[in-house]
Amino acid sequence: MRQLVLLGLVGLGAQLVDGSLGMAYGVTSTTLLLAIGTNPAAASATVHLAEIGTTLASGASHWRFGNVDWQVVTRIGIPGAVGAFAGATFLSSLDTAVAAPVMSLVLLALGVYVLARFTVRGLRRDRLGQPLRRRFLAPLGLVAGFVDATGGGGWGPVGTPAILASGRLEPRRVIGSIDTSEFLVSVAASVGFLLALGTAGLDVAWVLALLAGGLVAAPIAAWLVRHLPPRVLGSAVGGVIVLTNSRTLLRSDWVDAPDATRHVVYAVLAIVWVAAVAWSVRAHRGELALERELAVIEAEQGAARRAEHGAEPRAAQPVDDARTGAAEPA
Asked: Which of 45, 163, 284, 296 is packed most tightly, with the most Cβ within 10 A?
């Protein structure tokens, strides 16, 4: 019973992070299962079976809060399902020891880019609203789905930074769309694992414990991402990507850094990450203050123009801050 409670808490925490940042459920849950001696394929199968329920709940919650772009969901989710099925089917015969560091290096570069861009420049708006092309989303989904199934997690870490880096979709919509499309990936991976492994090594109680924790956290995370400013959210996501993939690289056969070196690197990266998020929060508050001042000036100018033409001045309307989802008084 104690183990099941622990798994439930892990599922809750993992889904809270995943639903807020678009990644980490599979990585967190799979890591715990491997730590207690679970077969890698069985661990990934257990997590993906639980994710069928958690991703469905998370997708519904994100849709309720307006965080989903359905065109992105279909364009990346269907290829992702194909990749996940292939990865699950061949996991037992695949060696990802070489592929993992290569992927982590690519993701680390993307993470540094996302962290720096959102911290220094904020959300790029000259591309917002431009469609994400199928020729970009389809290969991305195929690779992300394959990595997710073979590594027990990876859909978010691969898909989220790549779409964020395009600058064509708000962070909250990136996260909502990635979380929603992951339902298709989880179903396909689970089918692949069941066909390849049967029920060997699977513990239904573990699946239900992870699922229960994730179901509790899903609506909370969807609400949270709806109200976080894009600039702050982008810095937070970038930091998670950098820390996660730095850890993978430092522990890989390529580097094999000693424990002391790894701990120093983690500490430095954590300090940089916290400073970046703090800077983004401060910059966001400055942007809001400027927008309020401009709204007041615009309202006063409008009232003056109406008065000149003999029109009765009207009360200023609230200004909708699309980045926070909240209405700020004019």
From this structure: 45
